[in-house]
Amino acid sequence: MEKLPMPRHIAIIMDGNGRWAKKRGLPRTAGHSAGAEAFRRTANYCRTLGVEYLTVYAFSTENWKRSEEEVSGIMKLLAKYLQEALRDMEKNHVRFRFFGDLSRLSPELRRLCLDAEARSSEYHEVQVNFCLNYGGRDEIVRGIRAYARDVQAGKADPDALTEEMFSHYLDSAGVPDPELVIRPSGELRTSNFLPWQTVYSEFVFMDVLWPDFSPADLDAAIAQYHGRNRRFGGV
Ligand code: IPE
Ligand code: IPE
Ligand code: MG
Q1: 132-148, pLDDT tens digit by residue?
Q2: Residue 92 CB–ligand 2 contact under 6 Å
């Protein structure tokens, strides 16, 4: 079996912030702050490794079920993080894209997202896709709505639709599917993350909590990936 090349695209479900905080007797928000640091660390390490795309799950369409206090804490942290990222952008040459329905975010946060996308659109070293108010089923339904509008406008023919054409109606338009999906925190599920894009991804589930996730953990996940035999339905 030939060794697989380095994945071009790694996707991560950044889970376990709450448990990390609880173990330390800290409020859940402290776990989310530590999780933001883990994201910074991991994104930098991906850049060193030459990974081209990093997609991270930061807030799901289901996460609104949490207390108002936790949700507003997360939103505040995201705004702070994005402001810092905008400052560092010129230095790091990271391209930002956002997956998810941004219309439910506050106007300030939405503007920061759009600003980050616009100001980084010329960078090509590494692309971070930040999933914010993201749900995989919601993404597909929004894609179907956009497609149906094109049909109504006479710009698309349903009988001619292919998988490849439909993928351009998704948030991930133009981004290759992730070869590797990592879920820390010990949970063995995908929680509505990238259902369309991951049908042939390799999954690595790890017991580490996201705020503790280190470059060594990423190395270990990639090593597992390299041990897999990808057949894509062939032999
Ligand atoms: C992931 O950590 C962050 C978000 C979902 C926003 P959690 O907050 O889900 O942490 P646990 O799963 O409760 O430990
Ligand atoms: C998935 O984690 C969403 C994010 C990491 C943003 P959750 O903590 O929301 O998932 P469940 O509830 O354990 O499935
Ligand atoms: Mg969780």
Answers
A1: 999 999 999 999 999 99
A2: no
Residue 129 appears among annotated catalytic residues: no
Tokens of 152: 């109504």
Test site for ligand 1: of 24, 39, 185, 190, most ligand atoms within 8 A of the Cβ? 185
Token code pair at residue 47: 């850049």
Instruction: Decide whether any atom of ligand 2 lies within 6 Å of the 78 Cβ.
Output: no
pTM over 0.85: yes
Residues 35-62 as b or e (16 or more Cβ within 10 Å = b): bbebbeebbebbbeeebbbbbbbbbbbe
Query: Any catalytic annotation for residue 171?
Result: no
pLDDT band at 67 (very low <50, low <70, confident <90, very high): very high
At 28, the amino acid letter reads R
The stretches of 13-104 forming alpha helices (DSSP H) are: 17-23, 28-49, 68-92
